[in-house]
């Protein structure tokens, strides 16, 4: 998936949790083998070329494609599982894979799990009694600074950011097939599941600040922080309860 992953795991029986972490890491490598569009031999690449049928692929491929179709529906087409007419579900794969890894470790008995995939996080449980996870949101216009700190006191919470600060203009407008041209430099979404938080951040960025914020406000359980190229910060109405 072309990024770095890190794990912060608290509590549980050490041997069981260690085994679950190892399984989660192996699972992330497996996801790259199956879904990478940069690998000619991946199942998704072969599926896109018509060399494999969906039934011949690993079950995870159908699962992810179903999620991608749902993301496309909810976003009114601003999230797309294709790129220039070719199958490309990478916009949903990373968030889904990170969330799955976190849940695998939590199921082994860990009382607190944080999995970070390239700056997007899924947290489950807590790091300690009466303690929340605290997630810094990088300021895209002032390197080294923070735009906000999310205090994750819920049993499960995800934080995902899409923007141009780290990777340049890589987000595509699905209507044109070209880089999205908007007034935004970043969108950070806070939601229970990283699978969706990552998708919604991407879709909102492609919409632009006004339409993106309006759409995000319509989603249940979703809050967001948007930063424009003019250094203006816009937030959904309920974001303040997650900041601290």
Give the key terms:
globular; 244 residues; 26% strand; T-fold; 6 helices; alpha+beta; 13 strands; two-stranded antiparallel sheet
Commentary on this structure:
The protein is 35% helix and 26% strand. The protein has one domain: Roll (T-fold), CATH 3.10.520. The mean pLDDT is 92. With 244 residues, the protein is of the alpha+beta class. Helix 1 runs antiparallel to helix 4, helix 4 runs antiparallel to helix 5 and helix 5 runs antiparallel to helix 6.
Produce a short descriptive summary.
The chain has 6 helices and 13 strands. The chain is of the alpha+beta class and 244 residues long.
SSE blueprint:
Elements (H helix, E strand, L loop, with lengths): L4 E6 L3 H22 L7 H6 L10 H16 L7 E2 L2 E2 L2 H18 L4 E6 L2 E6 L7 E6 L7 E7 L3 E8 L8 E2 L4 E2 L4 E8 L2 H14 L1 H9 L5 E6 L4 E3 L9
Antiparallel strand pairs: 1-4, 2-3, 4-5, 5-8, 6-7, 8-11, 9-10, 11-12, 12-13
